[in-house]
Amino acid sequence: MAKFTGDTAKKILANEINVQTLLHQHPEYQEEVLRELSIMKGSYDLKRIQAMMNKYTSSAKLAGNLIYKSGFNEKTVNTFLPNIIKARMALHLLEHASIAASAQSPTKNVRFNLWDGMVLQRLLFSKGFERKPVSLGLFNFCWKFVLNKKILMPLVNQKGIYCFYSKALIRELIRLIGDKKCLEIAAGDGTLTRFLNDAHARCKATDDYSWEHYITYPDFVEQADAKAALFKYTPEVVLCSWPVPQNTYEKHVFKTSSVKLYIVIGTRNPAFTGDFGAYNEAEQFTMELNERLSSLILPPSNENAVYIFRRKEH
User: Per its UniProt entry, which superkingdom is the organism in (predicted)?
Assistant: First the structure.
């Protein structure tokens, strides 16, 4: 069994050692986590996934508190740090399971008919799976003629696509950003940043590349985790679209002194997107669920949400 120092514990608690490195360095913990998760037996049930995520999150918080209170005592570190490592591994795997679950559909293996495929390809994509800003009026007109609406998102989820951006939404985001220095974290294929920069914003796209099996990262998306990117670019505005549930990176946005505005595009359901724990603990920021902007995400859904966090003035 591995022995840990206080310095290693501090790095792991600060998320300075990424999950991929932990998986490589501690295969024995990975095997243990996989055995624990095997009770799911490939059944991607969102409630079960959420319960497992809550279990590992609670375990990690308890272990972290005990380590901090001990002053990083070596015995305490070696007793409880494995719980944190296993929790990070489990949450990483469960995040993937959550995405798989959201992509599950009774229409699995069903393809669009020729009409739906033609309409949606021209409406939503410039080529292949490369998204384009969508005219809201044109979408509203064409959407009513699509026969199999429910299979759109499960099909494109498999390509790392969780929403489409209307031209109206991009205009509103440009208005909010203005001439401020902007950073997108967990940017995926960089679609949002690409749209914003085409409209003359100053936005930098970054991602830790942990979803390479889902997403093809273009060159302009810089490989960097959120904490490192925030430190490097000291942005005034930060964006994140569809942050994974109970992630470990959004909390760093609220700890970055340069950030005045944080915009999250996602859902109202904590099981699907966002670190709502970090949102609720962000005492230096106001939090607004903007209904008008939420209505500009496509396809329309009562679950769509745009959250705007503004730093409080003192």
Answer: Bacteria
Q: Which residue, 307, 304, 308, is CA-closest to 164?
A: 304
Q: Which CATH architecture has domain 164-311?
A: 3-Layer(aba) Sandwich (3.40)
Q: 16: Cβ–Cβ under 8 A, 6 or more apart, which residues? A: 227
Helical (H) or strand (E) element with 262:
strand 261-267
pTM of the full predicted structure? 0.70
The SS3 assignment for 267 reads strand
What does the alpha-carbon distance between residue 105 and residue 154 come to, in Å, rounded to a whole number?
A: 7
DSSP 8-state assignment for residue 24:
H
The dihedral built from the CA positions of residue 215, 220, 223 and 229, taken in this order, carries a sign that is: negative
For tokens 């950073």, what's the residue? 183
Q: Beta 203-207 vs 182-184: how paired, if at all?
A: parallel
Contact yes or no for 205/184 (Cβ under 8 A): yes
